Write the structure tokens for this entry.
Amino acid sequence: MKNRIIPLIISVLFSGDGYASPGYADIDVNIGKPGSIDKADRVIKLTQVDNMFLPAEIKVSEGETIQFVIKNGGNHKHEMLIGSMADLKKAAGMRRTNPDAAHAEANLVQLEPGEQKELIWQFTKAGVIDFACPLPGHFKKMRGKIFVEKK
Ligand SMILES: [Cu+2]
């Protein structure tokens, strides 16, 4: 048994840039964790329009806690979900069959037109993390990347 586990661990450790490779979707991809407002290092403002994020590329530093202030400047409902691309695709697939399935979570905000909300997230490890609006018809265009730079 031991002989089978060790090669698996090694292949996970050396699977590249921290993204889960196909078949490893459930492995932690170091997207970070929910942050608390009193630990926030800075504020980053994002605007949603129909259908994109402005800006769509964000740079943060490893360890930083960001207070995202997200404003829906569009005429439609939008969401912002932070995750690995595999998880975002999974979420978007679920929303195609049931658009109202989701509820607010630490890595998800849901905004009506004109609404503004906050999402506080700590980026614990260097790498690239994705975000998107998983709503049907939005997901392909409404995406962005967070570049977490090494300290
Ligand atoms: Cu949207």
Q: What stands out?
A: The CA atoms of residues 100 and 110 lie 11 Å apart.
